[in-house]
């Protein structure tokens, strides 16, 4: 699971959960794979992110170093900033661990890099 | 016996490790899925020359995702079959994967995707694989959560295999109830082999449905079914009709104008670089 996905993922499909966001990350295995740098894509996606959640998530798995706490003004022209965003959003991946719903405490396992968001019958709306 | 896989077993059972491997190695399947994905992307009308974030619903082993990548976009895939997702991992697709059941809802935050595609997966929602499964409710859960996860004026396009007319009606009615506009586009309606169904769903204002392929200009209207061109009432508390509505419609109109030139430029200027 990449952190871009974590930034979008919620547990709001659980009955009774309102926003289910952000999910807390517990990681036992994190890897970094190289991904082609695409400033176009980054400029488009950054305004849609919850940057604070990204910052917290990156730090919670030990990859927050040097990451600015807020989106910088004119970030589209700031290559240094975009490269940092690129790395945490697309290159850092949680391989093993689990996510925790902030409202219900429900845990979602992450195994082989894939978060399992399947619900039980009782949890479905 | 039925040839439809969705009649044989639940998707997570049907798409087991064996089937996932067979499916992904079959060159005929690869070709067909790629073609249909290209058509879905075309129908999405994404802003030209930009790299978008797309949701691939029922992404499977990532055959559709590979085409999304080739077109310069990033994708997040949702699928119910762990074995299909394992193969996607093995193939080192560049999209990111989530294990989940679309009928339980799309587990993403509001407004995060520039568009959604789904290739050969939607028909599975007509099944009731568990006692608790009610297709109508699952369709509504799915469409309403999908609607929320799309950014304003984004589209969702599904290639799927309907069994009958009533399924088409059920699909469109649940999608409209969830706030979407749109309908079903049928390409090559007169060819047994090439005929393909695409459900095209739009947010942020009504627009005409795209033209189907393989039809005469004159009988085109017959090939577009259940187009809901009027505003459907009851958008269920979604911020559809806020003050930005006029602006969105204006945008949609502009997009429509751009579309006129599409047939000539189908493959020209398509972004092939900028992979992730
Ligand atoms: C024919 S495959 C298509 C895969 C991929 N889109 C492609 O073009 O190759 C259909 C996929 O839909 C998935 N699927 C079926 N029902 C689903 C559900 N309720 N939620 C999520 N995925 C589902 C299956 O697991 C399978 O991977």
From TrEMBL, chain A:
- Location of this chain's protein in the cell: Cytoplasm, Perinuclear region; Nucleus, Nucleoplasm
The keyword Cytoplasm is assigned to this record: yes
| Family annotation (CDD domains) | Trm112-like
In terms of Pfam families, this protein maps to: Trm112p
Keywords assigned: Cytoplasm, Nucleus
Q: Which GO terms describe its cellular component?
A: nucleoplasm; perinuclear region of cytoplasm
- InterPro entries, from UniProt? Trm112, Trm112-like
Q: Which Gene3D superfamilies match?
A: 2.20.25.10
The primary location reported for this protein is cytoplasm
Q: What family does the entry list? A: Belongs to the TRM112 family.
Q: What is this protein called?
A: Multifunctional methyltransferase subunit TRM112-like protein
From TrEMBL, chain B:
Enumerate the InterPro entries for this protein: Bud23-like, Bud23_C, Methyltransf_11, SAM-dependent_MTases_sf
Tell me the ranges covered by the Methyltransferase type domain, including all copies: 55-130
Q: Which domain of life is it from?
A: Eukaryota
**Which chemical reaction does it catalyze?**
a guanosine in 18S rRNA + S-adenosyl-L-methionine = an N(7)-methylguanosine in 18S rRNA + S-adenosyl-L-homocysteine
Task: Cite the record's Basic and acidic residues compositional bias ranges.
Answer: 258-267
Q: What keywords would UniProt list here?
A: Cytoplasm, Methyltransferase, Nucleus, S-adenosyl-L-methionine, Transferase
Please tell me one Gene Ontology term that the record gives under cellular component.
cytoplasm
Question: Which terms does the UniProt entry file under GO BP?
Answer: methylation; rRNA processing
Domain named 18S rRNA (guanine(1575)-N(7))-methyltransferase Bud23 C-terminal is located at 201-273
Localization recorded for this chain is: Cytoplasm; Nucleus
Primary residence: cytoplasm
CDD domains noted in UniProt? AdoMet_MTases
Q: Which GO terms fall under molecular function for this chain's record?
A: methyltransferase activity
- Assembly and binders: Heterodimer with TRMT112; this heterodimerization is necessary for the metabolic stability and activity of the catalytic subunit BUD23. Interacts with GRIP1.
Family statement drawn from the similarity comment of this UniProt entry: Belongs to the class I-like SAM-binding methyltransferase superfamily. BUD23/WBSCR22 family.
Q: Indicate what this protein is called per its UniProt record.
A: 18S rRNA (guanine-N(7))-methyltransferase
